[in-house]
Amino acid sequence: MLRSDVLGGVLVSAGTGIISFLLTWQLIPSLKQLFLSAGGGLSGRDLNKRSNDYRVPEGVGVIAGAVYLVCLFGMIPFYVLHSEDGATMTTLSQFLSALLSICCMILLGFADDVLNLRWRHKLILPTIASLPILMVYYVTYNNTYIVTPFPIPQLTGITVFNLRFLYYVYMGMLAVFCTNAINILAGVNGVEVGQSVVIALSLLINSLLNLNTEALAEHMFCLYLVCPFIGVSLALLYYNWYPSEVFVGDTFCYFAGMTFAVLGILGHFSKTMILFFIPQIFNFLLSVPQLFHILPCPRHRLPRLHPTEDVLTMSVVKFKTSDVGVMGRVCLFLLTTFKLINVEYDDNETITMSNLTILNVVLKAMGNTHERTLTIYMLIIQVLCSCVGFLIRYQAVRLFYDD
Q1: Does the pLDDT of residue 10 top 60, yes or no?
Q2: How far apart, in whole angstroms, are the C-alpha atoms of residue 64 and residue 25?
Q3: Residue pair 58/43 in contact by the 8 Å Cβ criterion
Q4: Residue 145: phi, psi to the nearest 5?
Q5: Cα gap 189→177, rounded to integer Å
Q6: In 3D, which of 9, 159, 34 has the Cα closest to residue 91?
Q7: How close are the terminal C-alpha atoms of the chain, in Å?
Q8: CB under 8 A, 24+ apart: contacts of 270-275
Q9: E strand or H helix at 319
């Protein structure tokens, strides 16, 4: 049984999630006309619709982010007053640093939607935005030890290892990965918000399973932050589902990614959180040859609408064989060997290759698919991978770590 104060915290978190859902659900239709009238980067056309002569509000994720911040601001008194004795200052510093980092990423995402920032900015700015939570981690915990997995203790006798500064490098890289991993798995109605909802629900379930453990404070922290996130995301998903009335923009992707990074770092379960990012990790590794220009990378890699049917097909990039170096040829060989891409040699000089994204891999496996069906496939994959993550976290982990 849960203690009364713990149960009260769970109910407050759930209530805040419901309020955040209702506020976002009401505000989006009321404010989306402002995005259309603003012009610039705040509206666009849905390229994967046969009739796309209308404009759709873009960057609407900023509404969800704003509601999320307002709801968390309102939770500060409750969160501090219900902290453990003597931990009020630590609790408040963690909560405020989390809000600061998330707020910075919402600002960056909205700037990206309006100004179309370059990729190097998208790597540098998340690192800077993660500094508040890293500094709070340093002054509150500063625990940089990791438990070594089997068979390292048996071979070396080392059961724990101090990473020191490298641990903070790892956490900074985690923030950069989370924010960009959501962003590069995008381009189809509902897929950005849908994957974020599944990850958030996985984190919610994981925290609920640990409310009777020694890590109660960390998992209550997760509940306070993840419930409002689920609320605003579900409301946004309602309007972003096919056929989308609004586009979430980079604002939501960065907002979601930094929220997950904050939960993993300050909640002290970053390894568990990474287990819920299996599709995003696969998509990132698959995208590496294009992201680092080993193979040519077009501006947009999202699936394309079939010219005669209302289905999506794999997007492709054409390039000359002379544009590919030795590493590129090795990547092409491996990708074709594992049947992850389609490659056509039009002549001795031109190559047509499907873009390196998990969406294209799904289309290659399932064939041309309706946009809504493709999103459903991706959410099913996300749910199955979360189940695998839970299996690893609570069962397979015993093969490598002592209880």
Answers
A1: yes
A2: 9
A3: yes
A4: -90, 145
A5: 22
A6: 9
A7: 23
A8: 270/171, 270/174, 272/206, 272/389, 272/393, 273/203, 274/174, 275/388, 275/389, 275/390, 275/392, 275/393
A9: strand 316-320
CB atoms within 10 A of CB 126: 26
Rounded to an integer, what distance in angstroms lies between the CA atom of residue 61 and that of residue 24?
A: 10
Question: What pLDDT, in 10s, does the model give residues 321-365?
Answer: 888 899 999 999 999 999 999 999 887 789 999 999 999 999 999
Q: Which two tokens stand for residue 172?
A: 């900074």
CB burial of residue 218 (10 Å; 0-12, 13-18, 19+): middle
pLDDT value of position 84: 60
- Answer whether 190's CB lies under 8 Å from 244's CB: yes
Residues 298-307, mean pLDDT to the nearest whole number:
88
- Alpha-carbon span 150 to 153, nearest angstrom: 6
Whose CA is closest to 142, among 161, 160, 124, 167?
Answer: 167
Across 107-206, the runs of DSSP E, i.e. the strands, are: 145-147, 160-162
- What pTM, to 2 d.p., does this model score? 0.95
For residues 212 and 231, which has the higher predicted lDDT (pLDDT)?
231
**CA gap 53, 210 in Å, rounded:** 50
Burial of 326 (0-12, 13-18, 19+ CB in 10 A): exposed
Residue 163 near residue 146, CB atoms below 8 Å: yes
Does residue 5 surpass a pLDDT of 80? no
Distance CA 236, CA 247 (A): 9
More confident residue, 172 or 399: 172
Give the per-residue pLDDT at 251.
93
Residue whose entry in the numeric block shows the structure tokens 């009020």: 88
Report yes or no: 384 and 391 within 8 Å, Cβ to Cβ.
no
Q: φ and ψ at 304, to 5 degrees?
A: -110, 150
Residue 46 is predicted with a pLDDT of: 85
The CA-based dihedral angle spanning residues 368, 373, 375, 379, taken in that order and rounded to the nearest 10 degrees: -120
Which pLDDT score is estimated for 207? 95
Which helix or strand (DSSP H or E) is residue 31 part of? Answer: helix 4-38
Question: Once rounded to an integer, what is the mean pLDDT over residues 108-115?
Answer: 86
| 381 backbone dihedrals φ, ψ, rounded to 5° | -60, -40
